[in-house]
Specification:
CATH superfamily of the largest domain in chain A: Type I PLP-dependent aspartate aminotransferase-like (Major domain)
CATH architecture of the largest domain in chain A: 3-Layer(aba) Sandwich
Helix content of chain A: 40-55%
Number of domains of chain A: 2
Enzyme class (chain B): transferase
Strand order of the largest sheet of chain A: 4-10-9-8-7-5-6
Shape of chain B: elongated
Number of strands of chain B: 15
InterPro entries (chain B): Aminotransferase_I/II_large (IPR004839), AON_synthase_class-II (IPR050087), PyrdxlP-dep_Trfase (IPR015424), PyrdxlP-dep_Trfase_major (IPR015421), PyrdxlP-dep_Trfase_small (IPR015422)
Distance between the termini of chain B: 101 Å
Number of helices of chain B: 21
Radius of gyration of chain B: 36 Å
Low-confidence stretches of chain A: 1-22, 516-532
Domain Aminotransferase class I/classII large (chain B): 127-489
Oligomer: heterodimer
Number of strands of chain A: 15
CATH class of the largest domain in chain B: Alpha Beta
Largest interface: A-B, 125 and 122 residues
Distance between the termini of chain A: 38 Å
CATH topology of the largest domain in chain B: Aspartate Aminotransferase, domain 2
CATH class of the largest domain in chain A: Alpha Beta
CATH topology of the largest domain in chain A: Aspartate Aminotransferase, domain 2
Mean pLDDT of chain A: 89
Number of domains of chain B: 2
Protein name (chain B): Serine palmitoyltransferase 1
Pfam families (chain B): Aminotran_1_2
Strand content of chain B: 5-15%
Chain lengths: 532, 501
């Protein structure tokens, strides 16, 4: 009998959800994560197995001084201290990461725009140390920087106004917002951010990472519950941890999982004491930077309203990059920004600057002004950085009297759709949402991480490759970030090279046929479709 | 089946061939009577009727099920019906996300700076001499620094659009890191894009759950956050009290002797500040180094207030005391005070520092420092290296201010004579922290009226582990001339005598 009631109520719930989805989404929500082919998965595990065996072998050789050891050593007087690192901590770094280390931290010596100049470097000891040859690899097509709207520029209105402010203000502030570092420029920026987002008030901080990790603790504390998406960024995880709240994790973008946690939390209260939670904060991101997925915001907002939870939305990657007006994921779904309690975002990406903001109701921001760790203890934002944000934001808003900003937002959307479609047609497995400018392409095998990065660079294209621990162990991937600054020629050149390297390394894993049409009816939401 | 074996003993002789064979083999191998029973059991098994075996099989399965099923489902009796659940959900009322703040709350009214926060500062519309920004060396509006920042802006733009790992490493970052290492005479340096995040990321990169950190009670807030993020055991010792620290270290040593196996993996750290921002005094570094080797504990030193201030060449506390920098495991400082740019850095031996490039959260997961800010820091280092006299000038000014501020009615000057950021505390508290703050604020406002910019030291009162008493910051910079200092000091004294009668 018990099971019956449970079952029926759940099915009712589901059907209401579906009706609701139909009403909430104003466009098809196409998101896919094609299943890893079985053979590929097996081979990937084998790859790691072989790497591990060789790792142990080489550790053995290093131990007996047969192989030269390049690892920095503890100083002689401190040899009898407790070791600073556990041996196994570094096994992965020493034996796997070191082999393909040349794919990361590639130094650049130009604007991180659509094309970028890299400093050439070589290694004579298999990546343990690098030497700079002094040569520069010119005009590498940049598919790695988060330069979504192309505001990473050294000429034009943004650079000009930032230059002017540099000469007028200098670059430092040397005090905190609460003491004597509250500049007129900061206040102007905050008013502009609030206006841009369509909310009452906003506050800005000097570092995006710290915006999360230093403000979540001001909002929740002991006796509060944080419901966090499993793929949330490290800064959100750190902030949640520092807050002292209880943290529960729901499956990535899975609304059933979130609802279950919400219901259970309210019904059962805090563990052991069974007191009701003081408050529940749902923490999600707009675009997930490793998956390329977009949060199911309409459903999240419905859930948060139904269960009276609060919503913290991190728009680090989505602000500027999504929505017809560039106002982020809220704009993308055509929702009311006031339905999100805490709007957070960064200026690093779309605005080509640095730092982050939190925006929302007047009371919230006033509270943060007095309780944010950042406002009290951290040096406030550098004036030229503030100026860069003001100018680029005004440009997106069209307040500079041009349509440049508007055009860039549109161009980015076009580029994204085009690039994703072409990759899919070529037969790569591409993760994420059709409209997300973050495009993860699956590589799976550890050896292909390094090979792909290197082969692309040989052909003058800079890409980002990521593997464990940033992704699940078998889901290594390359990640392309599309920019409005990319021209069609650049994208076509990049695509043909990707296809070429893809053939070379056999990366065209997809077993799915290309859907002929994208115009699906509203209720045809592809939800983690893994059928093939 | 066991019990039935005995009953069937007489039937043994009629056993079939294979059982007999088996029996013979067993007989050869075994000698005692005990083993006979075993044989009989096997025999009985063969001979038992099918229904019996099935029944016994079911019994065994039943026992297994009983063993593995949860004995007593307590919560099942409390299972709520859907209706009850809905009611509970309906009933629940959360606290507001942000508690309402009263409009007259002290913190809310930020002082507004119009224009650059340099030596001359326009604060709330009044042009003042700046005695509040940590711009110790006056590099904030130094022409050369600005020019270099501008040149960098013209080359790289403002933002880096990525973390260090993903095309966010610029040649300027590499140059700044090697310059910092050279300046500090350390093997390696690593830069962060935010001063606060530097030590707060560095501590949890090394110290993990189960490790032990010994910390001075006066440690600043970013250290406290780093400690919290590390989830290690934290042991606070009294401010600058080496005996108290040694007591804790001894206690730990005894503990370790009890459990040497565990002690072999527990890392131990001492975290101190060079010049404490909260108390303006200096840590006894030579004694700390002695304790380090005596008890085999590593030292992390936070030098945001002393880097570019103490020592003949501005290298900080190590140079001030003549301590070998290699004896300190990690030095961290921000580039937001003396260097007057933005960001922070850690330096030390490569063995230690390099680890942060994969484990420092604020390094790996954050966008890198805008190149123009790095360029400004490089130029600031150039100026510091070219003209080490500025450190002497600063020290002289500090001493001058320190001396001049002695004997202020009702106010107590806290700090070392060579510290550039001093605290003025109330000699007698009025009883409540709020009214103390109000009193000090009145003094600050009085000075502001007379064109001297001061500020209250701000803290998160509920978050601080050991909340420092309310105070006014007095910051000395080399830009302050004799007359400026004279004016500020007389202003403060006047204010104190008027307000704190």
């Amino acid at each position: 009998e018990f099971w019956d009631t449970e079952f029926s109520s759940e099915s009712i719930l589901k059907s209401t959800m579906n009706d609701f989805i139909c009403g909430q989404y104003n466009r098809p929500f196409l998101e896919s994560f094609e299943e890893t082919p079985m053979l590929v998965a097996v081979l990937t595990y084998m790859g790691y197995g072989i790497l591990t065996i060789f790792g142990y072998l080489r550790d053995f050789l290093r131990h007996w001084k047969i192989e030269r050891c390049h690892i920095a050593r503890e100083k002689e007087e401190q040899r009898d201290f407790v070791p600073l690192y556990q041996d196994f901590e570094n096994f992965y770094t020493r034996n796997l990461y070191m082999r393909i280390r040349d794919n990361w931290n590639r130094p650049i010596c130009s604007v991180p725009g659509a094309k970028v100049d890299l400093m050439e470097r070589t290694s004579r000891d298999y990546n343990w140390t690098f030497e700079y040859t002094g040569r520069v690899v010119l005009d590498v097509i940049n598919l790695g920087s988060y330069n979504y709207l192309g505001f990473a520029e050294n000429t034009g209105p943004c650079a000009d106004s930032a230059a002017e402010i540099t000469m007028k203000y200098g670059v430092g502030v040397a005090s905190t917002r609460q003491e004597i570092g509250n500049l007129d420029r900061h206040e102007e920026l905050e008013k502009l951010v609030a206006k841009f987002l369509g909310v009452e008030s906003a506050m800005v901080f000097g570092m995006g990472f710290a915006t999360n990790s230093m403000n979540i603790p001001a909002l929740t504390g002991k006796g509060c519950l944080i419901l966090s998406d499993e793929l949330n960024h490290a800064s959100l995880v750190l902030g949640a941890r520092l807050s002292g709240s209880t943290i529960r994790v729901f499956k990535h973008n899975n609304m059933q999982s979130l609802e279950k946690l919400l219901r259970d939390a309210i019904v059962h209260g805090q563990p052991r004491t069974h007191r009701p939670w003081k408050k529940i904060l749902i923490v999600v991101e707009g675009i997930y930077s490793m998956e390329g997925s977009i949060v199911r915001l309409p459903e999240v907002i419905d859930l948060k309203k139904r269960y009276r939870a609060y919503l913290y939305l991190d728009e680090a990657h989505s602000i500027g990059a999504l929505g017809s007006r560039g106002r982020g994921v809220v704009d993308y779904f055509g929702l009311d920004p006031c339905d999100v309690d805490v709007l957070m975002g960064t200026f690093t990406k779309s605005f080509g600057a640095a730092g982050g903001y939190i925006a929302g109701k007047w009371e919230l921001i006033e509270y943060l002004r007095s309780h944010s760790h950042s406002a009290v203890y951290a040096t406030s934002m550098s004036p030229p950085v503030v100026e860069q944000i003001i100018t680029s934001m005004k440009c997106i808003m069209g307040e500079d009297g041009t349509t440049i900003g508007c055009d860039r937002v549109r161009k980015l959307a076009e580029n994204t759709v085009y690039f994703r479609r072409r990759l899919r047609e070529m037969g790569f497995i591409i993760y994420g949402n059709e409209d997300s400018p973050v495009v993860p392409m699956m590589l799976y095998m550890p050896a292909k991480i390094g090979a792909f990065g290197r082969e692309m660079l040989k052909r003058n294209i800079g890409v980002v490759v990521v593997g464990f621990p940033a992704t699940p162990i078998i889901e290594s991937r390359a990640r392309f970030c599309i920019s409005a600054a990319h021209t069609k020629e650049m994208l076509d050149r990049a695509l043909s090279v990707i296809s070429e390297v893809g053939d070379l390394l056999q990366l065209k894993y997809s077993r799915r046929r290309i859907q002929p049409s994208l115009s699906l009816p509203c209720d045809d939401i592809v939800f983690e479709d893994i059928d093939d | 089946g066991i019990l039935h074996g005995h009953e069937k003993l007489p039937e043994l002789q009629s056993g079939n061939c294979s059982v007999l064979n088996c029996r013979i083999i067993l007989e050869i191998n075994m000698a005692s009577g005990q083993q006979w029973v075993l044989v009989e059991m096997v025999q009985a098994f063969y001979e038992a009727p099918a229904y019996h075996l099935i029944l016994e099989g079911i019994l065994i399965l039943w026992i297994i099920r009983l063993l593995f099923s949860k004995t007593y489902k307590l919560h099942e009796t409390y299972k709520l019906t859907e209706k009850e659940k809905e009611d509970l959900i309906e009933e629940w009322q959360p606290e507001p996300l942000a508690p309402p703040v009263s409009k007259d709350h002290l913190h809310l009214n930020y002082d507004l700076v119009t224009g650059p926060p340099s030596h001359k500062i326009i604060l709330n519309g009044k042009e003042c001499i700046n005695f509040a920004s940590f711009n110790f060396l006056g590099l904030l509006d130094h022409e050369r620094v600005k020019e270099k920042a501008l040149a960098s802006l013209k080359k790289y733009g403002v933002g880096t659009c990525g973390p260090r790992g993903f095309y966010g490493t610029f040649d300027v970052h590499l140059e700044l890191e090697s310059r910092l290492a050279k300046f500090m005479k350390a093997e390696e340096a690593i830069i962060y894009s935010y001063g606060f995040a530097t030590i707060a990321s560095a501590i949890p990169a090394y110290s993990k759950r189960g490790d032990i950190i010994f910390v001075d009670e006066a440690a600043c807030f970013s250290i406290q956050k780093g400690l919290q993020a590390s989830r290690s055991f934290i042991k606070y010792f009294k401010h600058n009290d080496m005996d108290d620290l040694e007591r804790l270290l001894k206690e730990q040593e005894l503990e370790d002797q009890k459990n040497p196996r565990k002690a072999r993996v527990i890392r131990k750290f001492i975290v101190v500040e060079g010049l404490y921002i909260n108390t303006a005094d200096i840590c006894p570094l030579p004694e700390l180094v002695n304790l380090k080797y005596k008890y085999k504990v590593r030292i992390f030193l936070e030098e945001s207030m002393s880097f570019g201030v103490l020592g003949e060449h501005g290298r900080g506390v190590t140079e001030h005391y003549g301590v070998n920098i290699d004896d300190i495991d990690l030095i961290s400082a921000n580039m937001e005070n003396a260097v007057a740019s933005v960001g922070g850095f850690c330096c030390g031996r490569s063995f230690v520092i390099d680890h942060q490039r994969l484990s420092g959260q604020g390094y790996c997961f954050s966008a890198s420092l805008p190149p123009m800010l790095a360029a400004a820091a490089i130029e600031a280092l150039n100026i510091m290296e070219e003209d080490p006299d500025i450190f002497t000038v600063l020290r002289e000014k500090c001493k001058h201010v320190y001396k001049a501020l002695q004997g202020t009615t009702g106010l107590k000057l806290v700090g070392e004579p060579f510290a550039p950021a001093l605290h003025l505390q109330l000699e007698r508290s009025s009883g409540s922290r709020d009214s103390d703050m109000q009193l000090l604020r009145t003094i600050v406002d009085y000075c502001l009226e007379r064109h001297v910019a001061l500020t209250l030291a701000r803290y998160l009162e509920k978050e601080e582990r050991f909340l420092p008493p309310p105070s006014i910051r007095v910051v000395v910079t080399i830009k302050q001339e004799k007359e400026d200092i004279q004016r500020a000091v007389s202003c403060i004294k006047e204010a104190a005598s008027v307000i704190l009668k």
